[in-house]
Amino acid sequence: MGAHPKGDAVIRDNRIPQQTLGQWIADNPGCLGAKVKDTFDGQLPFLFKVLSVNTALSIQAHPNKELAAKLHTQFPEHYPDTNHKPEMAIALTPFEGLCGFRPVEEIVSFLQTIPELRALIGDVAAEQLERSVSDDPRGVSAALRVCFTRMMKSEKKFFVDQLNMLVKRISQEAAEGKDTSGSNGELLLRLHSQYPGDIGCFTIYFLNLVRLEPGEAMFLGANEPHAYLHGDCIECMACSDNTVRAGLTPKFIDVLTLCEMLNYTPAPSSSKIFPATQSQLDPSVYLYDPPVPDFTLMRIEIPSSIKLYLVSAVDSASILLVIQGTAVGTSTAAASEMTLRRGSVLFISANESISLHLSSPEGMLLFRACCLL
User: Fold this and answer.
1) Does the N-terminal or the C-terminal CB of the chain have fewer CB atoms within 10 Å?
2) Residues 139-148 pLDDT 10s
3) Metal-binding: is it a keyword of this entry (predicted)?
């Protein structure tokens, strides 16, 4: 949902002459709101998605603006635009992802108990990381960069052999009823069954496993390594399609760029959960306001006791998605009333509001993406 040239949203109302959202915005740039229009050169600055992750999505990171411009110039077929792509995922169901580097003590512990992992990295790099624990943070990041890069660049035949040995060993332990949680056994076997022989299987020993409950979010800034593993989520991001991938994927992989660009700052998995704040003005609205200007998300939970609800005006264009419940929407800007149900998507111009006449006994759950500068 958005106006990126590779996936410009189609307008379903056949009374409107423009066929896509991008065309409509180009002809009505005032709909963005004055600040958004000036800041983002007349473009809608965000992309809004729903993801349903059954098999893991690739190990990836998104470049900052400087790197995006460079990659686009060098490899336009792989990096289609010059924008950064910070993103946020909000869980709709229990959701699992890998995100950011684990605390270094956890990585060291895996290196000491998983010989197949240590073999890929080599004793010299592993010992350097073990010694760095008492170092200043820069020393830790430098040692972590060496370890992760050595693993990601290891020779295909060698890492496939090590991976097969590890999978075989953990499968046997699991069959004997042993606890394999100390080597992330369940996740390793699951990823290996989805992507056999893929180097991405080893990244579970470097990256935090983050579990989100519905309504919880994670924010991924530039150069943050991540992979979504399982579950449904709402996702919002800057309007870009730049992704540097390095594993768990059949798509183009760019290990060199990924290892160069990553943020090698370890942090506990709990720090990856991004908090929502309840709106001061409307108790039904929870705001997810990331540290980038391109987008803000709102979760709107309308209780069943409310039969008339006003989706209030903001000074930015926004996209509204219905997850649960039904209503009839009216707006001074719309030619006729709109029937809203699960899966309905509305584009709302800046400074416009919508009245919802709720018709479902269970209330409503909506998500709204906008740009609050």
Assistant:
1) C
2) 999 999 999 9
3) yes
The residues facing 278 across adjacent strands are: 286
Alpha carbon of residue 165 to chain centroid: 32
Comparing CA positions, the residue from 83, 89, 129 lying closest to residue 108 is 129
If one counts every other C-beta atom within 10 angstroms of the C-beta of residue 64, the result is 16
Tokens of 247: 């594993």
Residue 121 carries which side chain, given as an amino acid letter? I
Q: Cα(334)–Cα(6) distance, rounded to whole angstroms?
A: 27
Listed in sequence order, the residues at least 6 apart from 309 whose beta carbon sits closer than 8 Å to its beta carbon are 284, 302, 327, 355, 356, 358, 364
Annotated binding site for Zn(2+): 60, 62, 87, 226
Q: For position 40, what pLDDT does the model report?
A: 97
User: In terms of pTM, does the model score above 0.70?
Assistant: yes
- The letter for the amino acid at 302 is I
- Cα–Cα distances (Å) from 120 to 6, 137, 156, 249, 274, in that order, read 39, 24, 11, 20, 33
Of residues 102, 118, 190, 245, which has the active-site annotation?
A: 245
Tell me the per-residue pLDDT of 8-44, one tens digit each, with 9 for 90 and over.
999 998 899 999 999 999 999 999 999 999 999 999 9
CB 15 within 8 A of CB 335: yes
Distance (Å, whole) CA 44 – CA 53: 26
Interval 339-362 mean pLDDT: 96
